[in-house]
Amino acid sequence: LAIDLRERLGLGTQNHEKSRTNIVTRIGNGILGFVVDELFDIMSLDNEHFAQTPGTMSQDEKQFVTGCFKLNKRLLIMLDAVQLADISATLRANLRDNHIQREQGTSLCIGQ
Predict the structure, then answer these.
(1) By residue range, what is the domain housing residue 32?
(2) Which residues of 46-85 are buried (b: 16+ CB within 10 A; e: fewer)?
(3) Residue 106 lies in a domain
(4) Nearest-angstrom CA–CA distance, 80 and 90
(5) Residues 30-78: pLDDT tens digits?
(6) Is residue 103 assigned to a domain?
């Protein structure tokens, strides 16, 4: 399974002529892939650089974030792979909306 992070995070679509990158990670006993626009670097970070999630983030954004790291005047956001992989809430909401729209005589297209 590969999850498109741009879609999952609600960031809209991008010109797909540009090459995209897959990041593969282990979650428990399974393996999961994330499709990203670009990968700049892979690094190990010390807890001394750990910072709390900014208060300016919305609840929708915070559900996918475990924290942040401050490094060289940059704020690196650490995403929660397990939360990103949990699409059940999204599917439930889409199915509920689909049921409502079917009752109203309209249709719903799940996904892009």
Answers:
(1) 2-93
(2) eeeeeeeeeeeeeeeeeebeeebbeeeeeeeeeeebeebb
(3) no
(4) 16
(5) 888 999 998 888 888 888 888 888 888 888 888 899 889 988 888 889 9
(6) no
The SS3 of residue 57 is coil
Residues 83-107 have pLDDT tens digits of 888 877 666 666 666 666 666 655 4
Residue 101 in domain: no
Domain count, the chain: 1
Q: Dig out the tokens for 42 from the structure.
A: 């892979």
112 within some domain: no
What H or E segment, with its residue span, contains residue 62?
helix 59-62
User: What is the pTM for the complete model shown?
Assistant: 0.66
Listed residue (8, 111, 88, 110) closest to 102, CA to CA: 110
